[in-house]
Amino acid sequence: MSRKTTAMESKVRLFFCDKSGIASPRFLDGLNVLSSSLASQNPDFSSKILPHTRKWEDIKILFSPSEAKLSPKEIALYAKSAESMGAESSAESSLYSASLMQNMPKILLKSITKDALWGGGKARNANINAYLEILRKSNHSELAKIFGTKRVDLDVLSACLEMLHSPRIEALHLYRGVAYKALSFESLEAGAQDFLRKSTLIFSNLFGAVRGGDALPYYHLNQNYRSEKLSLQSLYKAQRGEICALLDSAEIIIDLRAGVYVKAYPLKARPHYILPIPKGTSHQAKLHRGVALRNLATASLQGKNAIKAILQERFILTH
Length: 319
Known about the structure:
The protein is α/β, with parallel strands linked by helices.
């Protein structure tokens, strides 16, 4: 162990622990921010300082994407900021800098077609290639159907055509619709964010199922668009086996998806929880789902029993 690492561990302990040396649960989230860089110098650090780090593979929350997203320019700015902060960061960075890094979304430059993600790559890459081919060959009228708009924004078209060479941002940061505004991912504590990155499975229109922490490039594809080679139904039919295998490992499955995604990939006889939408507020369903996801994330800070309590109180178990 280096002297620098030892000194940094001491500083972290002093800041996050009380006089008896016991870490406060409120401050354990902050340790997650620093653990990655420290663990690279001292592999034992995480196990000693963060004994309660959870993996959350046994909970899966199915969620919808949104049409509203960060713009390509906004993603590029995040990528530039991440590059700048990465060049300046070190294990000796201040806790203030670590706090900034906590809210900095993961940015990747590697093409999504070369990234295995959780699986489902064969179907995902075939869908991406079909999408790009259609974009290149379609006329204005067909492009408008693909994007679900009356007119085609040439900047959007250009960004979509360049998606294999564009920076990618975490899915939970990319989407900016009503549900995601209600979720307000950036304002959650680090532990709650980590829970959502690992447990949320977003059923995207182009990439198929992706985890909340998976990095995606900017894209635009209307959920109702159908062609011989490109449709929501054919995509999820191709990914069905791998998604089923992923869900087989889950003890708890929570379905917060909109109807179109439920139809594209029905859970059938698999037990799962659904959120009842109050009568007369169906137009606010996206808002209710976003709030529910935030509540689950917040409850995760208290452990699985807190999540189960919310499910028993506000959700319905169905088969």
